[in-house]
Amino acid sequence: MIINKKRVLFYLLDGARPDILSELIAQGKLPHLQQLVEEGTFRIATTCFPSTTGPAYLPFLTGQFPGTMNIPGIRWFDKQEFKRSRWNKMAMRSYCGPEAGWFNTDMPADKATLFDLLGESYNLYNMITRNIPDEYDLGKKGKNWLYTRAHFSKRHHPVDIQGHERIMGLLKSGKDFDFLFAVFPSVDWDSHYHHIRDHRTVAAYQIADNSIGEVRAHLEKKGWWKNTLFMLTSDHGLTPSHTHFDLGDWMTEQGLKSVGYPVIWRRNPQSAVMISGNSFGSIHLLNHEGSHALQQKEMVKHFGEEKLNGLLKQKAVDFIAYRGNKEGEYYVQNHHGKALISQQGTQYVYEPLDADPLFLKGIAVEGHRAALESTFNSLYPDALLQISQLFKSRRAGDIVVSARNGYDLRDFWEYPEHKGSHGSLTKEHMHVPLIYNQKGWAEHSARTADIFPSILKWMNKSIPVNEGDALN
Ligand SMILES: [Zn+2]
Description:
Layout: E1 7-13, H1 18-26, H2 31-39, E2 41-46, H3 58-62, H4 66-69, E3 75-77, H5 79-84, E4 92-94, H6 103-106, H7 114-117, E5 121-124, H8 143-153, H9 157-172, E6 179-184, H10 186-193, H11 199-222, E7 228-233, E8 239-240, E9 243-244, H12 247-253, E10 258-259, E11 271-276, E12 280-285, H13 296-303, H14 305-313, E13 317-323, E14 329-334, E15 337-344, E16 347-352, E17 363-366, H15 368-373, H16 383-390, E18 399-403, E19 407-408, E20 420-421, H17 427-430, E21 431-436, E22 446-447, H18 451-458
Parallel strand pairs: 1-6, 1-7, 2-22, 5-6, 9-19, 10-11
Antiparallel strand pairs: 2-21, 3-4, 7-21, 8-20, 11-12, 12-18, 13-14, 13-18, 14-15, 15-16, 16-17
Helix pairs in contact: 9-11, 10-11
């Protein structure tokens, strides 16, 4: 038995907002987190774009962004594969259902996860399970049935409570661990189906808090706590939605018949629309020769200026983004006009052209950390890097739509109806809590991608090339 052995305990409170966590801590409703915050650090970090479950797990588990990992949505479409053969398994994907298991093989095989890099690694409920043996996947047994029942009955808490029991089961079994990654999904679900401040959502935060208290007490008794790095974060915030705008139906009404989940069988589609979260949408135009992702000139030509303006006039559409005509150039546009984002090497520039859709004035900085610092407290945190990383993936589509808070992009097919959503680049979706039981780490603005190297450094492991920077 190694004395002073280091361990990592990681709680992913899916959909937790830092402001709500602060409120609940101030109200004394999360006593165990309160203690952690007093002893350690509570800060805000940014997640990635799209700020959605699944892709937004990649930064902390792999240190890479969704564009780099080629998983730019919880649903995605690959024009090249679709045009090659429509019934091709790689043409499109939805991880909200039976295809969830393909997440593991959709990722590039050469990018390691923390599970690959940290000895005895246990997983609870996270869908990225590549190379995790069943006996290390604590939530696996009965997960499908439990999730389905929670989904259709809108009673989610049994999932989190069982998850906690599985963690305690492991700890009491006498087995040791190096890394334990536990997802508590109910804050996200309750925020989607009820409200971000509904009493059921608050209760979901409290289930996680109780779990932290009990697990901590157990580790303290064993003498393990003082060498355990405890971290808690989230993959995105959420905002309440009052209006649904179905982007896929709208494309069809415009004469560009769309396919999307679950209606993927339409004949002669002219577009594909993939929604994540549901405040993020990607549009893939199919009404053109070739199977490449379109840059501005071709996109405007095949979409049509009139339709483009029609889209921008929709109240639900906060802004759209698309590739510029040169490598590393991207446009962001709203109904007032557009701005240019450019990433050349380590230089990041935001330049309003006929408008300033992201309200950033002008920015020109050196390095991705400065790009984060310059936008961290803006309405669109980390916009420069996030838009650049996303379009590295051709699966990101020809046009990306970021919804205005209060709206989402999917109507009839969402059951049960969503009353909250995420996925956009707004601050309310991009800011996530980052709590850890340490003090004195770097104080510069943080991304969830920084968690990956921080954990490896804590465990004295070598750190593969990644898109984060260790905070410790
Ligand atoms: Zn989530």
